[in-house]
Design a protein that fits this description.
alpha+beta; 4-stranded antiparallel β-sheet; 3 helices; 4 strands; elongated
């Protein structure tokens, strides 16, 4: 073996012997998104009644999972194959929608 190949081989053995993986910084699966896939949260203007908000959600092929009574927030389930980003872009075009956001996952402070 040429000298360079021997040195490289020795370095690889040393790294493996120390339990350090050259790929240890890489995750084998992609990280989970910081939001719940397949659903978004909508806030309609206060002047929008429940029939109109349900109609908008239905027009987009989605369905309402729940409405939080105190805040009026709508948790909306997306049709299969629709990304959160696409849904947000579509809902934000309606003047009745005050805001549309991903359903972010809560994190404990020690997880940050």
């Amino acid at each position: 073996m040429p000298l360079n190949v021997k040195v490289i081989f020795f370095i690889i053995l040393l790294i493996c012997g120390l339990g350090i993986s050259p790929l240890s910084g890489f995750s084998r699966k992609p990280p989970e998104p910081s939001y719940v896939p397949g659903q978004v949260i909508l806030k309609f203007h206060d002047t929008v009644d429940s029939a109109r908000s349900a109609g908008i959600v239905g027009l987009e092929g989605c369905r309402i999972k729940t409405v939080l009574k105190r805040t009026g927030l709508h948790i909306v389930l997306l049709p299969e194959g629709r990304s959160v980003e696409e849904a947000l872009e579509r809902f934000r075009k309606y003047p009745e929608v005050l805001w549309a956001e991903p359903d972010y996952r809560a994190q404990r402070l020690e997880d940050q």
